[in-house]
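[recover] target loaded
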């Protein structure tokens, strides 16, 4: 089997674990590859993948880092349905399954078939603009459309399932998945959804209007946004800036297929991770 390693390049411990992971895989008859820039940073130039197709065609992705590295891993392999093992080298990770000391055990369990797959809903984004590439782009957490100038709002017309809903005057709008409901949407006072749910969360950021509530929509209720007026808006997908939208530009957001696929070795309670993240007491 072939495994792609995606590594947090700025953490020495992540680099050490990448060497350990590559050595274990090769010693057990598997193939390990890395993105060329990761391979150079880690010191495994001989394992650099020759092309993008090699990455997308892997049987397993091993993310060694925090949630930011996980988002990069998902971007690389989710469209191909590649399962992902997350090795947490960050702080408390929502997405990573394995602590650094459990790397070898995780590999042994995966290659013996002692695991299950947890699927997480993703978003697919398509853009109609002369300034931004059409896509499609994929997001595990969220898509954000925001103002470009301090002290000004952006105006966005929103349609739900092909029917006009309303226009927003706000600092921005967030479309989040259940996984992304604990990210930017949460800081904008959006609801927390279980990652096992399937829904879209539309959360306004500092709306300048009476209607200021977040909305939870069914996964098949596609969203379309049109920029109104002459104030431009920036587009960000999972923290990656795509560029600027101008008046009349459209952004469409829908449920993506396939979902992101995470390798799990036991029952990992989202609610307990959430409790630890916020330091909640038992009662």
């Amino acid at each position: 089997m072939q495994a792609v390693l995606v590594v947090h390049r700025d953490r020495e411990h992540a680099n050490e674990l990448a060497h350990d992971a590559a050595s274990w895989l090769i010693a057990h008859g598997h193939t390990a590859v890395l993105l060329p820039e990761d391979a150079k940073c880690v010191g495994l130039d001989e394992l650099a993948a020759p092309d993008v197709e090699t990455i997308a065609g892997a049987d397993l992705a091993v993310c060694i880092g925090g949630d930011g590295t996980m988002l990069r891993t998902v971007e690389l392999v989710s469209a191909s349905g590649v399962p992902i093992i997350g090795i947490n080298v960050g702080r408390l990770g929502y997405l990573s399954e394995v602590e650094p000391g459990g790397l070898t055990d995780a590999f042994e369990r995966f290659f013996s078939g002692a695991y299950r797959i947890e699927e997480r809903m993703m978003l697919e984004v398509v853009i109609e603009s002369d300034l931004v590439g059409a896509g499609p782009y994929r997001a595990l957490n969220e898509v954000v459309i925001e103002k470009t100038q301090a002290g000004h709002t952006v105006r966005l017309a929103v349609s739900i399932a092909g029917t006009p809903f309303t226009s927003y005057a706000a600092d921005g709008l967030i479309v989040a998945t259940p996984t992304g409901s604990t990210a930017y949407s949460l800081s904008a006072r959006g609801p927390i959804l279980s990652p096992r749910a399937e829904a879209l969360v539309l959360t306004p950021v500092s709306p300048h209007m009476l209607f200021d509530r977040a909305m939870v929509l069914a996964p098949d209720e596609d969203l379309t946004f049109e920029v109104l007026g002459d104030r431009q808006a920036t587009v960000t997908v999972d923290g990656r800036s795509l560029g600027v939208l101008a008046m009349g530009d459209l952004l469409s957001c829908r449920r993506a297929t396939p979902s992101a696929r995470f390798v799990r070795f036991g029952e990992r309670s989202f609610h307990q991770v959430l409790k630890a993240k916020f330091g909640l007491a038992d009662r």
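[recover] notes: The longest strand covers residues 250-264.
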